[in-house]
UniProtKB/TrEMBL annotation:
InterPro entries: Bardet-Biedl_syndrome_7_prot (IPR016575), BBS7_GAE_dom (IPR056334), BBS7_hairpin (IPR056335), BBS7_pf_dom (IPR056333), Beta-prop_BBS7 (IPR056332), WD40/YVTN_repeat-like_dom_sf (IPR015943), WD40_repeat_dom_sf (IPR036322). The keyword Membrane does not apply. The gene is Bbs7. This is BBS7 protein. One of its GO terms (biological process) is intracellular protein localization. Residues 336-370 form a coiled coil. Residues 600-713 form the BBS7 helical hairpin domain. It comes from Nothoprocta ornata. It holds the Pfam family BBS7_pf. GO terms for cellular component: axoneme; BBSome; ciliary basal body; membrane; neuron projection.
Amino acid sequence: QQPGPAPTRVLPQVGVTAHKTMRLLPASGRKATQKVVVGDQDGVITCFGIKKGEAVPVFKTLPGQKIARLELGGALNTPQEKIFVATGSEVKGFTKRGKQFLSFETNLTESIKAMHISGADLFLCASYIYNHYCDCKDQHYYLSGDKINDVLCLPVEKVNCITPVLACQDRVLRVLQGSDLLYEVEVSGPPTVLALNNGNGGDSGEEIVFGTSDGKVGLIQITGSSPVHKWEIGNEKKRGGILCIDSFDIVGDGVKELLIGRDDGMLEVYNFESADDPVLLSDHALSESIASIQGGCVGKDGYDEILACTYSGWLTGLTTEPIHREGGSGEELKLSQEMQSKISSLRSELENLQIKVLQEREKYQQSSQSSTAMSSVPAFSVNDKFTLNKDDASYSLILEVQTAIDNVLVQSDVPIDLLDVDKNSAVVSFSSCDSEPNSNFVLATYRCQANTTRLELKVRSIEGQYGTLQAYVTPRIQPKTCQVHQYQIKPLSLHQRTHSIDHDRPMNTLMLKGQFSFAEIHSWVVFCLPEVPEKTPAGESITFYFQNTFLGTQLESTYRKGEGLFKSDNISTISILKDVLSKEATKRKINLNISYDINEDSVRYTLKLIHPKLEYQQLLAKKVHLIDALKELQVHEGNVDFLLPKYRNILEESDQLLEEYKKQPAHLERLYGMITDLFIDKFKFKGTNVKTKVPLLLEMLDGCDQDGLIAFFEAA
């Protein structure tokens, strides 16, 4: 049986949850149903079972510091039924009855972000630090080059040695041996979550499934000497990032399916029809990001289900239990007696709650009239994510609130384009703003429909223009409260970290020398470029590679104390870096010696990269401008057979063309801007001001071929 097409079981709600904080305890004795244990950001651990469709509490702890992770443990080869939670820098242990047996205060100065337990071994990670403890005694320590998102250890009983694996933000899995790095595994996106394949690492115990923040899933075999990439599922449907992974046989064919929870609320089930690559079996959309996912038997003996816990603490079960219906064909189908009584009890519970809310609201209104009354600001939690998408060179801003959103005001002190998002049902209105006195370029309000808790916006920035984007989030709570969240738009905002670059391209070089420390130049690079770890790297020097997601040009940056070397095939990138770095050094009163080497061939190369994109966008714009006229012809003539095939094609594809044009409204203007910048920057390095020739260039761009454009650049 496949998982039901809709959640048939909505379980109690807990507080806001972090990801990987819900687990199912192993079934005990003759009772085949499992208990659910979940930890929330109020610091409360809730454990309950299901009896006759109702939640029966087992235990609930008192509030405390927020719970970042919840794992099950126990002696190896025995049922894993001890509950361990990470709160702040402490790890607590509870029995399945809720009795606390462990309180281990670690020596970490930061809060624990990730945790894994295997027998007596405890693996903990803060932002950059990994620690391994055995029986609460410090064993090993490692400092990572970038933020650690998750940690895992290959099963000791299968591989006979302790092999921890760290999922790091710089698109790398780091495999450790003791306190040393064994090797690094490059993956296609920033890995956010790790899980053992099949729950046990596969036959060899070496197989790890990883999920990335850009929605890809892959399987890697971690052997003793080098990694083996087995398969990877792309993200063609442009769904959200992966937050949780589990393996469970929900179909009942003896082969475990792969369960995946995404940050856009998509729950997916993949099965392995051919033994190699997974195939999507079914999916289900929830309204919030899925923080934890597990397969098991919770509600009714003999019927497995997939349990998901969402960001705001809702627990939802997709069950294989059929919904019994009465009545035959021709008659109206009726729900079973049990289901009907369940619905009526829920209705009466809702009515009681609504009455209670009205009474409390009246009480609040009356008390607020008195002169001594104090109105306290209600606290609410916002889960936000601001990431660059490689596919369309735009930033996604995702805002998720634990309660319904009323409106979001977006303000920016730099020019940005707000792009259309399919999933977004909010009504947007733009306000005119003065860019001069208070550098206010964008002011837009998104008014959300009732019960919207998640809002996704798309933003495209312009390289060279940097500043701050602010989101003012107002939820539907009384009294009205607003939270402000800030996001930095960096000078080279469309660049993304990459593992390697093409060294054969013609490159321009920028060289900096001066009395600056390694930490100072690193802070300047962090200011200029996204995806650079804020912590100063270990060692004496560092090299980072970047790719421009809009144009495909590249950048190599190598720097150490007193020296920085930047190479790019795009002169504009070098020009932006030169301006920003010299400005930052001047602020700190550091004297910089700047030299550069400009390669003439690089301009030709960059133009060859831009021109096909320019041609495509010009053609798209022309087609879109023709659509209305062609539709009018169609209405008047009734038949369009007399039109040339290319015009008939425009009519046939009009919906797709309009959709594409609407999604990227200012694409053509951006390309014109980039060509203009390239033209100005080429001559700026020669000490010539060609701004007077820009109108000529723009005139020429309209119908110019690649060779003509290159010739103009060279003749100028």
